[in-house]
Amino acid sequence: MPLEPGEAKTATPGVLASIEGGLDRLNAGLDQVNERMRNFNEEYAERAREWAKEDEAQIQREIEEHEAKLQEKLDADPEFAAMYHKVARQFEDENL
Questions:
Q1: CB contact at 8 A, 41 and 48
Q2: C-alpha span between 29 and 93 (Å, rounded)
Q3: pLDDT at 7
Q4: How far apart are CA 73 and CA 87, in angstroms?
Q5: CB 36: neighbour CB atoms within 10 A?
Q6: Tens-digit pLDDT profile for residues 50-95
Q7: Residue 5: helix, strand or coil by DSSP?
């Protein structure tokens, strides 16, 4: 039966309790989702920091390997070493 304008529909205490219970369960579920997302974000941030450290260590190893190979070439070939140092000085002069 339709309601007249200004007429309010009333709910029984059982219906109100059911609605409140449903809202409580919804809020509890949302709290669980929020907690899981917070945990996931913290774990991912930690993993990202570990990856960054690993990447930094790998880059440092590659730099050291490259420098060692370059030094071997410089030590083995004095003519190459002279050219290298000349170019390096020119580069430094241009970029200061």
A1: no
A2: 65
A3: 63
A4: 15
A5: 10
A6: 999 999 999 999 999 999 999 999 999 999 999 999 999 999 999 8
A7: coil
| Tokens found for residue 7 | 């007429």
Tokens of 92: 């430094």
Amino acid at 81: A
Measured from the Cβ of residue 74, the count of other Cβ atoms closer than 10 Å reads 14
| Alpha-helix residue ranges (DSSP H) falling in the chain | 13-76, 78-94
Q: What pLDDT, in 10s, does the model give residues 4-60?
A: 776 656 668 788 889 899 999 999 999 999 999 999 999 999 999 999 999 999 999
Tokens linked to 50:
């570990």
Cβ(39)–Cβ(31) under 8 Å?
A: no
Instruction: Tokens for 70, please give them.
Output: 């370059």
What integer pLDDT is reported at residue 86 of this predicted model? 95
Q: What does residue 44 show for φ and ψ, rounded to 5 degrees?
A: -65, -40
Q: Are 80 and 73 in contact (CB under 8 A)?
A: yes
